[in-house]
């Protein structure tokens, strides 16, 4: 539990730095709200992790993997990527949005890579619901503690010494787990010496980081050019296009399912290292997979929509960075830990359907709390209560949801399938979150947070149907 708490801390620390903290930084630099909303699309990287998750199952990081094993090797490489990307992000700002976007994307990429490796290891070691509950709780305690520490600490430091100091300080803390992993025992069958493996890993890691940065810059340049040609800017209404994109994954699944369902065990689509793990999921669940995917897309949608714009709204209400930072400190940490602990305990006592329903309800209440906050006088105790409601709901729903998704995967493809499910769960919400700024401009903050709360509740009607879903026997 201590180990997975540490891994959760390593993955959670950078998250606010490319989401809510970055939104406040861009707001302070005078960036338009619609453009701040576009930066929510950086958070699409975790939803696309199924694209490179099979690589983590198949390949070993040179140097690191030889001594510490495949999973820890990828975690160590990801921590190098996190620290370097965040340090670079410290020196960017609203005047160089393209460069800021580059390092935000790299930070999201390496954070997601860390999550893929840690999640695969967790599922391999603890495959049952009773085992998953405590381990998921420990992992999320670390994750949410780090998110709170980064969010609160960064805002307090930014208020005192500027955004560069804040990002550099968090980058330094993000690197602290690396020497802990270096000092851990070697993997079974490790060859060579620790020092040689570390040097080889650092050299290979530097080459991989530079290659990833160059590739990201090239792809980003093309994407920005296409966006400019399509007329997408801070004044464009992208909501209809985003809603259309949200429908495409379901249409693709419906078209592919009949062929996958009929495929024998030796069919290419099921044996392929690249797509076999994902075809296996649809082969086992059949057309019920579409219902499952619709449910997982809705379950955290309200929280995701609220995440990127809640802090800019609070700042517009008249709260200062230090006030927001204090609310995101002890108050948010205590509420989040309580929510995660409650969720981790409930999955060992209640049926999954009831725990999922309670998670959706508490998440919705947290979103409605922002509407209540907007109609109160500026006062820190009021902000503390709204923050506590939001963090408790997020923590409880998050813990329950992680266990539920972990139970859906085939242990033969734990890394790839869990990456696919968690990625798809946030794909549609984060696509829509990118249009959040334009939606607020059209309907206002009140209606936006009412909408996000209602969307959290919209997952509950799926639960009676999901209770009857059973996977096909593996073959």
TrEMBL record:
Coiled-coil features, chain-numbered ranges: none
This protein's UniProt keywords: Membrane, Transmembrane, Transmembrane helix, Transport
SUPFAM superfamilies xrefs: MFS general substrate transporter
InterPro entries the record matches: AmpG_permease/AT-1, MFS_trans_sf
Primary location group: membrane
Gene Ontology CC entries for this record: membrane
Organism: Sphingomonas lenta
Annotated protein name in UniProt: Permease
Residues spanning the membrane: 33-52, 73-91, 97-117, 164-184, 196-229, 241-260, 281-299, 329-347, 354-375, 381-407, 419-442, 448-467
PANTHER family on file: MAJOR FACILITATOR SUPERFAMILY DOMAIN-CONTAINING PROTEIN 3, SOLUTE CARRIER FAMILY 33 ACETYL-COA TRANSPORTER -RELATED
Source domain of life: Bacteria
Localization of this protein: Membrane
Topological category with respect to the lipid bilayer: Multi-pass membrane protein
